[in-house]
Amino acid sequence: AGKAQLYMYRPSNFFGILGMPYILVDGQETYELRSGGSLYYELSPGSHKVELTQMGAIARTIKFSVQAGKK
């Protein structure tokens, strides 16, 4: 209880098979997001940062906050 759920999905894409991104949540590598793959992660309330890396470089960064009991 009191956790937020993060769900990410990567649509299937034949051209994106070679460049599989890694997802980092709060600086910790959590998953290699393959074409057609998905990621489910539980987060504690507070501020968080999700980064998508490709070929060792950060491609996207999203910062957000979650609160217990909020939708």
Helix residue percentage: under 10%
Strand content: over 45%
Count the E strands. 6
Instruction: Look at the helices and sheets and give the structural class.
Output: mainly beta
Shape: globular
In terms of per-residue confidence, which ranges show pLDDT below 50 for 5 or more consecutive residues? none
Strand and helix order: EEEEEE
As a whole number of angstroms, the C-alpha radius of gyration is 13 Å
- How far the N terminus sits from the C terminus, by CA atoms, comes to 13 Å
In which order are the strands of the major sheet placed? 3-2-5-6
The overall pLDDT average reads 83
Largest sheet: 4 strands, antiparallel
Number of helices: 0
Summarize the structure.
With 71 residues, the protein is mainly β.
Description:
With 71 residues, the protein is mostly beta strands. The strands form two sheets. Strands 3-2-5-6 form a four-stranded antiparallel beta sheet, with no helix packed on it. A two-stranded antiparallel sheet has the order 1-4. The model has no long low-confidence stretch (mean pLDDT 83).
